[in-house]
Structure formats: structure tokens, C-alpha cells
């Protein structure tokens, strides 16, 4: 599936809920399915700055596709990074660089998009894209 | 105290957040603003906005009078001996930096500064910078599990090398009231000066700087019903005369030639440039408002809120309160076992409850407890028990959703 198709799928899933509580509960559920980062990668260097809670992300190239693993010490943040990993993992670095993130608005998480918001959703997106740029340079 | 009448003084308390009535428990970050203070700001810009101290015209005179009246209101509130001992600042942080800057010429290598383990970063970093530039050393008064300072350790830290001691009156992260009277007395025995950060105390307590015999006391207007961007520094005249000016500019001079400038007398020596005139006047109005309600009444009512909140929150299984002592301001810093404070804050916000989460700019305290942060509910005299009930239900819901 392309990033766009995965994002549409996530938007469809979230559209089934009518209130914030159900959306948050679902986000927490999604956090449980996050492909977890190996402990040896939970280093200071892999922490995303700008988050009130800790978020670690690791990226590696498998057959020209970028695969992300992550974790967080906060449950809601873990749900947010899980949604991003689901949307961007197993894609080519170029596709990740080109992807937009409007779907965050559509699943009712717009409030988390503000750059000043303490959870650092913006920092997370930036970090995933930075990995993509780095690996794309390697591929060229 | 007529709580409904008081609440009606604060227009913001009528608004909704996320479709729920706002429950504002982030008062330790900033307090809300009563209509009289808002009116005072509107009145200034509508009727007598002018630059002060220089104009010969009537508006300037009017603005100058009001601004200086506010300084007198602040003096009276803190019971300083002289109005010239009150310096307007942009806030607590500014006041601390002013004093730290002033001491840079008075310290030498090997001198010692003492700071409490309970400080806000703003009462740590300026002193670290001062130590770096002068070669002085920074010592720390340790605390115990209740957030109480170890006074025995403090005694041992004090020597004839100690030049300055700084401590907050009330801890912003835990709400603990520190024994500043004792801290000041002991520091004076070895000839050290003391700066007390009153940012978290002044919303709840009316400090008496002469009785405390404190050398410097700093506070912010926005924590005591005033506007942001303005605060006060009290300094004993003998100290303020000794310290060099902080910033150069207009207002702070007596005479300027290219060869030499002589500085203005206190307090203007420390007030370079056009000050926050409107903010200063509104700060005075905020102090008048709080005194009209009465600090004794505020204390008793907030104590009731604190006791009620503490006992209701403690009924939640797995909830731990940090800094639970007999002497504390109306602040409850807590965590739910196994749950990140950020998660709790996010859920309760959805129900209209505003709390602070994180390390509260006091990372050393969080490191002590080995936690990433806490959820902090801080109360003001316009809060109610009913609002505390809303907080408790919201925390319970968060626990259910997050466990």
C-alpha cells in the first residue's frame, strides 16, 4: 500500500468514532501494536527532542525500504508515534520525503499538530523525514 | 468570603474548554485576571497613556503619578522601609538576573553561593552563570522525601566564604513553604546576603520584608492577578546602592557626557528605558484587589481547598502526592502509578481541566524522586471544591483509560 492509501485507511478507522474518548482509546490500542524499538537502540541520540515524554525512534533500510521501530514512556504519545510509523514504515525514503501529513487533521488530532504542543508530534514527523532524507542520500 | 461574588470578578471563568466549563488549576503557572485589573489596563490606554518621568505635559504627569503610586502600593504590601527600595522588573527571572549581574563585580574566586535543592531553573541558572564568570562555587542544600530542606546540612554549608544564599519562599514544583526566616538569620550570621524568590509565595502569602530581614525579594505580577511582563525586586537600600546598574539607557542616568555618565538615584538606577508603565499600574491594582479580599481569608479558604483536594485525590488507588507536608501552599503535585504525567494531563484537558504536567522547570527535584515529572494542580482563591470534584473524576477517567 502507498502512504496515501494507509493514511486513508487510518482516517476511515477513526471516522467510526463520534467522541474524543473513543478516538483516544483507539489511539492507545494502536500504541500496543507499535513495532517496538530494540533496547540497544534506546539511546540518548535516538530520543526525539521537543517531547514532554520520551520518544525513541530507530530506522533501518531493508530492501530499499525504510523500516521504523519506536517506543515512548507515555501511552498517548506511543499511540501517536504508532500512527506515524504505520503510515511511513516500509516505504521508500523518497515516498516518505514526499508524503504530506494532512491525515492528522482528519483523524481529529489537529490539536497535537501545533509546534508548541508539548508532545512534539511535529518533531516526530520531522525526525521520520530526516531519516528518510539521510537514507535517500545513501541510496543515491 | 463570598466565592460566587469573587468568581464573577473573573470573566475567563465563564468560558468553556473542549465543551466543558473551564476548571483552571494551573494558577502556579499564571493566575487569572479580575475585571478591575482588566479595566485598569483599558483605562490607561484609553485615558492617560503617556511616557513617564520626563514630560512636562499633564498626561505624562498623570501617568507618572499613577506609576509611582503603584510603586508605593507595592512597598506598602511588602512592608519595605522605603519606596526607592522597590524596583520594577519584567518579572521574577529579570529580578534574579539583575541581582546576579550586580554581584558579578563583588565576588572573587573561591567565594561560595548556596542554593536550595527545591529551586526553579530561573533561580539556578543565573547563579551558575555568575559562578562561571567569577570562579565562585555553587553549593546545594539537600532535601528529604517530603521536600523539606535539610537545615543541618545547611548549617554545615555556611562558612565565611559564603557570600549569597538563594531560596524560593514556596517551591513551584511541590508547593512546600521553606523556612526562609531561619535561612536568612543563619546566612546573616556568616555575613552572607539572601535573595528569596517569592514568585510562588506571593499569590498566597503577604511577605513582610522588614520582619524577614531579607536582603532581596523578587516576585511577578502575573502570579498575583496582575498582567504578564512586570514584576518587582525589593532590595535593602544598602545593597541596591552597592550594586552597579544592570542595563544602560534612558531613565537611569543623572548626567551623560561622552567622558562620563553619572547614574540616577534609586530606584531609577535600575530602570533603564521606558518601563512597562501600564503593567506597573495594573500590578498595583492587582495588589489592591487581593488585599481587598484579604490574605488571611485567602489563606484559610485555600487551606480548605488544599485539604479537601489532598484527601479526595488520595482516595484514588495508586495515586502518590509529592511534597506532602504540613507547611505548604495550595499546590498538589502527584502521579498515578505506572502512568506518565503527560498522559494524565492530556486526558483531563479533554474534560476542561487545566493542570500543568512535566518537570515544572525544576529538573533536579524530578531527578531526586526519579520521575519524569508530575501532574500539578495549583489552586487559587477563586477555585471551588466542586471544581476539585471535577478534577478527581477526570483523574479517575484518565486512570481507567490509561491502565
UniProtKB/TrEMBL annotation, chain A:
<protein>
    <submittedName>
        <fullName>Cysteine desulfurase</fullName>
    </submittedName>
</protein>
<comment type="similarity">
    <text>Belongs to the SufE family.</text>
</comment>
<feature type="domain" description="Fe-S metabolism associated">
    <location>
        <begin position="11"/>
        <end position="129"/>
    </location>
</feature>
<dbReference type="Pfam" id="PF02657">
    <property type="entry name" value="SufE"/>
</dbReference>
<dbReference type="InterPro" id="IPR003808">
    <property type="entry name" value="Fe-S_metab-assoc_dom"/>
</dbReference>
